[in-house]
Amino acid sequence: MQLDPFHLAFQVRDIAEARAFYGGLLGCSEGRSDETWVDFNFFGHQVVCHLNPAIGPEGSVAAHVNPVDGHGVPVPHFGVVLTMDRWQALAETLRENEIQFVIEPYIRFKGQPGEQATMFFLDPSGNALEFKAFRDVENQLFAT
């Protein structure tokens, strides 16, 4: 499956904090930057953190939740589909770094089309991220 990289720009409350989270914790290499924005190689995709001073040091971006599989899924959110091994390794890294999960790592839709491993957590600015994995991504990613 050939995928084209996506581009996503979103707001953060602090550029140094975003660098520590996306670059340090998640291991995303940094691309171009300026005083008010920085872009990262987010697993082969370009994400750009833009400073929004209105958020303030203790604030976070607004969020909403929708019920999915018995959980309150934060909206909006973004993330990446990883291999199962990479997903498990990331979950362990997040636990070791005491990242608080919005939805703990688990298998969603067990025994159904689209069965997947998933986890949700927030960046320091309150942006929601979901990382998921499928045993057979080619056939399960868009299964109905």
Automatic annotation (TrEMBL):
Domain (VOC) ranges: 4-134
Gene3D superfamilies: 2,3-Dihydroxybiphenyl 1,2-Dioxygenase, domain 1
Source domain of life: Bacteria
PANTHER family linked: PTHR39434, VOC DOMAIN-CONTAINING PROTEIN
UniProt name for this protein: Glyoxalase-like domain protein
